Amino acid sequence: MMQFDVKSLRVSFPDSARKRLFKPVPMIEVLHGVSFQVARGDSIGIVGESGSGKSTLARALLRLSETSGGSICFEGQELIGLSEHELRPLRRRMQIIFQDSQSALNPRLTVGSIVAEPLISNGLVKSSAQARDKAVELLELAGLSESFSKRYAHQLSGGQRQRVGIARALALNPEVIVADEIVSGLDVSVQAQLLQLLDKLRKDRGLTLLLISHDLSVVRATCEKVIVMRGGDIVENGMTNEVFEHPHQKYTQRLLRAIPLPDVDPTWIHRVQLEESAEPA
Ligand SMILES: Nc1ncnc2c1ncn2[C@@H]1O[C@H](COP(=O)(O)OP(=O)(O)OP(=O)(O)O)[C@@H](O)[C@H]1O
Ligand SMILES: [Mg+2]
Fold first, then answer.
1. 53 CA to middle of ligand 2, Å?
2. GO terms for molecular function, please (predicted)?
């Protein structure tokens, strides 16, 4: 059985630009009936130009936004039509990490509390001491030492903030992690460290990783499979090396040509000099 079996998934948003007084807001479709499958433990890159529907697809898949048609089967269970109450036990099995970790992390909470929060709200710990210990353990898994648990998000580097996001996402021991542009804007060496961390966690824990990135070199280095999106459709879907070597679409060829140089070598992630520093990036 596939972990995800998605058929003809559609998403529409209210088109406020075309709103007329006393008329219902017209809808605009941004995901046009996409179908794909995800196997347990897959690492799948989702690429495509800005506005092609990558984040919309990910959010719809995790039922974080409304869908207007189609089917999402997760481990044999149809997600479309489930109430929020029915979704609750499924939610902890799928986690999403966003790019903008600065605003995703509560500025008033220490890093330890941010990571402990899902444990507490899901009743997975019995005392605050246990929550603290578990948070430290999760931070260490994400490559941050105990001392980070007392800091605030603004006292961290961009890469360290993303590690907090990863630690928090791991708290509920999910089966699926969606990472939406989590390395963009970071130094190449920091990107490589974060991607290696995600890949290691995926392998160690048998996680499924959906990695959204506009940077094809990131996907090429990290993901076995790739989905290429354009204008709300999936235009290519297959093994990363096959898609990148024999792109069917002119669009994919164009995206490939636009790979930021000089990181065209698919092994760049393993070659990047990992700087020895006192603190993890
Ligand atoms: N809440 C919303 N309301 C209306 N339109 C939306 C909403 N969210 C996304 N869209 C539209 O849906 C389309 C796809 O957006 P989406 O954010 O999925 O693109 P993306 O591929 O993730 O782009 P980027 O690489 O810039 O993050 C865009 O045209 C966008 O304007
Ligand atoms: Mg996006």
1. 7
2. ATP binding; ATP hydrolysis activity
pLDDT for the residue 104:
75
Tokens of 139: 């931070």
Query: Ligand 2 centre from 136 Cα, in Å?
Result: 30
**What are the tens digits of pLDDT across the range 71-114?**
999 999 999 999 999 999 999 999 999 887 666 788 899 999 99
pLDDT tens for 30-52 read 999 999 999 999 999 999 999 99
Q: Which residue's CA is the closest to the ligand 1 atom numbered 25?
A: 50
Atom number of ligand 1 nearest to Cα 57: 18
E-assigned strand segments in the chain: 4-14, 27-38, 43-47, 69-74, 77-78, 94-97, 176-180, 208-212, 225-230, 233-239
Structural domains present in the chain: 2-277 (3.40.50.300)
CA dihedral angle for residue 168, residue 173, residue 177, residue 183, rounded to 10 degrees = 30
DSSP for residue 186: S
For ligand 1, atom 18, name the residue with the nearest CA. 53
